[in-house]
Amino acid sequence: MLERLIESWLDSAGERSYQRCFCQMLIGQGYRIVHNTEHTPLEHGKDVIAISPDDKVVGFQLKGNPGKSLKPSQFDEIRGQLEQLATYALGIPGYEKKIPDECYLVTNGEIDEAVSVELQRLNAALESRGHPPEKIKTITRGTLLSWANSLGLSMWPSEIEDFSNFIKLLNCAGDEIFPAETFDPLLRHTLRMDNVLKTAELRRRITSAAIMTAVALHSFSRRKNYFAEITAWTLFATYTIAACEKNSLDFNKNGAEAVLMARGAIRGLLGQLCDEIPERGILSERDPFSEFAFYRPRALLIYALMGIYFMWSDAEGWNEPNHKAVVEGLVPENLPPQSIWGEGAIPHLLAHTWYRKRIAASPARDKFMAAVLRDILSNKLGPVGHLPSPYYGIEDVARHTYQQILGCDDPFEGDGFERTSYICESLMMCLVRANLKERCQELWPSFTRISHERVVPDEAWRFALYRTGEGATNTTHIYPSTMQWKDLQELFAEHGGADIPEALKADPILLLLFVTIFPFRASFSTVKFLHKKFNV
Amino acid sequence: MLPDFPETKKLFSRFFRTYMRRRAREISPYGAVQTRYIHEGRAMKVTRADQSESTSGMEQLSVHLEIKFDEIENLTLQKAIEKHDAMIVDMVRKQTHFIRERMSSEIPESQTLDAKGRKFDAQVVIEMFEKMQIDFYPDGTPHEIFVDGPVFTPERMAAVDKEFESNPELKKKFDEMMEKKKEEWRAREADRKLVG
User: Fold this and answer.
1) What percent of chain A shows pLDDT beyond 90?
2) How far apart are CA B188 and CA B84, in angstroms?
């Protein structure tokens, strides 16, 4: 059954989505990817360049022929690229002037017989020019399926509940928010989070989880639901980090390559989102009559994602230089009123603020943060309509607010948010670090009237999961009524991040993205850490 | 399987869930207490303003709901609700017992009063309130005070009210104590300062 599902995925996957999986399968076979067009502009017809386990430079040209064969007319179009693939020297740092030792034409479909003949002729011509025989080989649907089965499927969890979750993901319409709660047990079970793993098995399981991620995204990739894809690949990356740390195995040796690929995919997806936005003209999606409940929260999320994309590209180089101006034109200097729909919006606000500070540092940004904290405190101390905790998302807020007309369950039923906050400490910390003493003094009485909540995982690796499981403590912190400014400064000057896995701390962009997608991970400790990294 | 109607049954199930939650709140002596969901983790820790800490774990409370085969045929909505009512009473009893036990173990000695067998009267109320930290609304009215325990019967509470009404000395003592509590509250509020 699962084999058929993989077949069905491969037979309908576009070039980009199977390219991500293909790279992960290469990594699973011991290759090291040194170039991937999803992350950088095209390199002379080579979509992927990798170093094989026996140290050969191998070039791959990928074509998407889902459910079809590569026809002679299509081959004619790529003949030039293939010749470049086989004969051009590379321009990649560390491999300059090197011509690939092996080349592959890869398709997720079949290769027409006439194309095979053409390929033989091309190889013969290359041989006559001094290249080794059969310089260009092929990898087709059958090989990809066999790799997916041996590297992926063989390690997927086989419990009926996992199977059902997997089917649930494949049955998604693809236009919704990615159901992380369904994906979480699949990743946990594939990476055997409840067991101890040795190096070789962990590595195999990481590849298997990557293939699962690509296949589970099938419906979402088809709908070009970039945010869903970003969510899933971010989870794959953080779970890989968690698995390495949990098993005390060197992340750099065992998981870094796979995470690097996922990271590249995420950045590519942010780029695709950036491409899509100007075409739309407005940040709305389909039925405009329901947008009153979603437009502003979505806009804030998009500003946060684009802000992260900007900071990421600014640090590591722009793959699409025109995107810089697109982001600058898209993300407004100030947020519209009523942008804060819940505590879950605060990580989005922080990403927006840190991005804007890069563009134009201004004390007004910190003062805006003070106004947000003032509003949240007054909301929490007020009689009704308390902002929900970061465990509730945009959809929960809409369902709660319009429960009567929607006739649905109240997602907040049984929960209370009065005089309690997960995020106010972090905002206060930003103000203290910005030395806004007077504002802090104004806000202090209200700040001490509420209880401040934190979830502290027992082990750092649990932080990188969608849910920590039982291994975490819910702490409530009540500040003393009177406190010395100096003591508060000292307390908030700490770096934080003690409960975050080391490999995630080493990648602040991924960490910022993780807390943007999963705001309940924006703990006080995490925001302290991120503030040090991003606040300029 | 036999023909079934899961979608509509889900709606009934939703009704019973909501009914149970609401009814439990109505009959529980702690129904007005704010509740919170714990989304992950099993342990809880409170660090208070004076840096004192309390840690606690979770406790699983369960109750038994039984429907016999021979009851099903004649089951009506009313009877199903009655079954749930019995279960709710049982659950609230267990919750209340658990809360009382946890409060008894967590409340510091300085905030407890041992009445040493005396009956619950106006003097005990004054002594009890003296031990408590009482907060006030900005207009000066005290926050609502909820009582729970076997001594707080409606009859006893009414008797205490009568005692205050008929004994001006006790009433004066009570008012002075509340005035003192208000002053303490004002001082606490005035102390909410970031200094230095």
Assistant:
1) 79
2) 46
A119 close to A105: Cβ distance less than 8 angstroms? yes
Strand partners, A463: none
What does the DSSP 8-state code read for residue B136?
A: B
| CA proximity to A513, closest of A144, A114, A241, A277 | A241
Q: Which of B18, B39, B188 faces A481 most closely, judged by CB atoms?
A: B188
Residue A104's pLDDT band, with cuts at 50, 70 and 90, is: very high
Q: Going by C-beta distance under 8 Å and a sequence separation of 6 or more, which residues neighbour residue B157?
A: B147
Q: Residue holding tokens 């089951």?
A: B75
Look up tokens 């979770």; give the residue.
B58
A379-437 pLDDT tens trace? 999 999 999 999 999 999 999 999 999 989 899 998 999 999 999 999 999 999 999 99
Tokens of A46: 């080579």
Burial class (CB in 10 A: 0-12, 13-18, 19+), A300: buried
CA distance B75 to chain A (A): 26
Set of chain A residues whose Cβ sits within 8 Å of the Cβ of B21:
413-414
Distance CA B109, CA B114 (A): 10
- CB atoms under 10 Å from CB of B107, counted, come to 11
**Phi, psi for residue A64 in degrees, rounded to 5:** -100, 110
Task: Tell whether A280 is within 8 A of chain B (Cβ).
Answer: no
Q: Give the burial class of B116: count Cβ atoms within 10 A of its Cβ; 0-12 exposed, 13-18 middle, 19 or more buried.
A: exposed
Give me the residue from A418, A441, A471 closest to B194, CB to CB.
A441
- Residue A224: the pLDDT is 94
Judged by CB atoms closer than 8 Å, whether chains meet at B45 and A409 is answered as no
Q: What is the pLDDT of residue B38?
A: 93
Does residue A478 sit at the B interface (CB-CB below 8 Å)?
yes
Q: Where does the pLDDT of residue A44 fall: very low under 50, low under 70, confident under 90, or very high at 90 and above?
A: low
Tokens representing B63 are: 């109750």
- Report the C-alpha gap between A271 and A291 in whole angstroms: 25
**pLDDT of A43 over the 60 cut:** no
User: How many Å apart are CA A263 and CA B147, to the nearest integer?
Assistant: 57
CB contact under 8 A, A468 and B38: no
The pLDDT tens digits for B62-82 are 999 888 999 999 999 999 999
**pLDDT at A14 (0 to 100):** 82
The SS3 of residue B53 is strand
> How far is it, in rounded angstroms, from Cα A240 to Cα A197?
13
Given an 8 Å threshold on Cβ–Cβ distance, is A440 in contact with B37? Answer: no
CB contact under 8 A, A481 and B49: yes
The β-bridge partners of A49 are: A35, A59
Asked if A414's CB is within 8 angstroms of B194's CB, the reply is no
> What type of residue sits at position A109?
G
The answer, yes or no, to whether residue A50 has pLDDT greater than 80, is: yes
Query: For A477, which residue in chain B has the nearest alpha carbon?
Result: B47
- Alpha carbons B180 and B132: distance in angstroms, whole number: 12
d(CA B108, CA B49): 15
Question: How close are the terminal C-alpha atoms of chain B, in Å?
Answer: 74
What value does the mean pLDDT of chain A take? 93
What 3-state DSSP class applies to A260? helix
Residues A228, A235: contact at Cβ < 8 Å?
A: no
Task: Match 């191998």 to its residue by tokens.
Answer: A58
- What gap in Å lies between CA A450 and CA A151, rounded to an integer? 51
* Per-residue pLDDT band at B34 (split at 50, 70, 90): confident
Query: Residue A287 — left, alpha, or beta (φ > 0 → left; ψ -120 to 50 → alpha)?
Result: beta
Task: Say what the pLDDT of residue A536 is.
Answer: 87
Amino acid, res. B8 = T
SS3 A509: helix
Contacts of B193 in chain A (CB under 8 A): 441, 444-445, 481-483
